[in-house]
Amino acid sequence: MKIKSKWLILGGVVVVAGVFAAFGLNHNNAPQHFTAKVEKGEIRDVVEATGMINAVITVQVGSQVSGTISKLYVDFNSRVRKGDIVALIDPALFKGALLQATADLENAKANLVAARANLEKAKASLVQTKADYDRTAGLFKDGILSQQQLDLAKANYDSANATVGGAVANVTQAEAQVCQKEAAVAVAQTNLNYTVIRSPIDGTVVARNVDVGQTVAASLQAPTIFTIAQDLTKMLVYAKTDESDVGNIKVGKPVTFKVDAFPKETFHGVVKQVRMNATTVQNVVTYDTIVEFANPELKLFPGMTAYVTIPVATVQNVLKLPNTALRYKPPMSPEEILALYRQYGIEPPGERKTASDEAVAAERISPSSGAAQNSPRAQRSDSAVVWKLRADNSMEPVKVALGITDHSYTEIAGFVKGELKEGDEMIIRSVMPKSTAPGGPGVRR
Predict the structure, then answer these.
(1) Fewer CB within 10 Å, N or C, the chain?
(2) How many whole angstroms separate alpha carbon 313 and alpha carbon 378?
(3) Measuring CA to CA, which residue among 330, 312, 331, 329 is closest to residue 407?
(4) Are 218 and 65 a contacting pair, CB within 8 Å?
(5) Closest CA to 248 of 371, 372, 378
(6) For the whole model, what pTM was predicted?
(7) What is the pLDDT of residues 149-162, one digit of tens each?
(8) For the chain, which domains are there?
């Protein structure tokens, strides 16, 4: 009995081992699939860019004259109003130049007075010589005086007349010199006034580039002493957007952005302008998109880096696929894939799509789609074949029309062949058993 029991136990072990061996062999021959479910929800197509925060108006306050900074009345973050004194350049040299120009003006005025006196003297002499000439002419007619005396009287009269003309010219010259000296005084006074540097706008000092005692030279261009930003409660973001995204950005679009200083806060703005001035860096073309936003609490400072998100299109309550499912390729030979395509009525790639298929795709747009009516970006006409994992572990190809994408999920705009519903398992990766893979390791897709 004991021997019989041992044989029965041994036979049972052999049967169980055979069953496990057969199950393990079949299990090893089948690929292992990783799946993701078809979901229903919202997809937001956005343009992302990086930019810099700037004030709406930024003025660089410089110096019109050269000299040494003697006083600074404001510093970083100082609030100033238009006309406030912000700096003073040592005025000693300019005061001296003004005094010299004023003295030259007084000298010119004195010369003008002397010239006018000489003119009056010349006019008096002219009257005298004219009277002498008239008397000599009368006596000459009566035969009392000779021709020589008449000619001498005529010469004296002509000389006095010329002297008057010269005196008039001297007066004119003296008047011109007075005007010239007055202009020099005005220039000297203006240069002296330029030593007092005033704020041209109401705003906040965001940069100070000089210190007391530093010499500024304005011979070639005006040196920048301060940078003043006007009204930091309203600011701009200069976002660098790629040329491929410019066509989808419209003025007035709402924008959100984040900054490193407040990583948990989202700030809101509006697209104000897309500038046509292109910037090319290493063959990459970008355009400045100007975003306007309010900064009432003065949290954000000029120069901060902003990470901008510009919504382009949004759809809600639509079926969506993970993008990994769109990139999946089954671990089959091309002949097996073509056979499955034909089995489910899908045209192999490269074959011309019939008009009937296009009509079917248009009619089979998901009725539950809640796509935004005012979406600025039209749905794409692309299509793709995705692979659904059926309950019996077999794969079914489904050809879908694609809508917008957020680069993680893509909208199912319609069905060309096949059907998908929320919760269906889509294959995103397959791993082949080691025994069936050439060279030993498993094949992954």
Answers:
(1) N
(2) 9
(3) 312
(4) yes
(5) 378
(6) 0.65
(7) 889 989 999 999 99
(8) 31-45+317-436 (2.40.420.20), 47-57+229-315 (2.40.30.170), 92-194 (1.10.287.470)
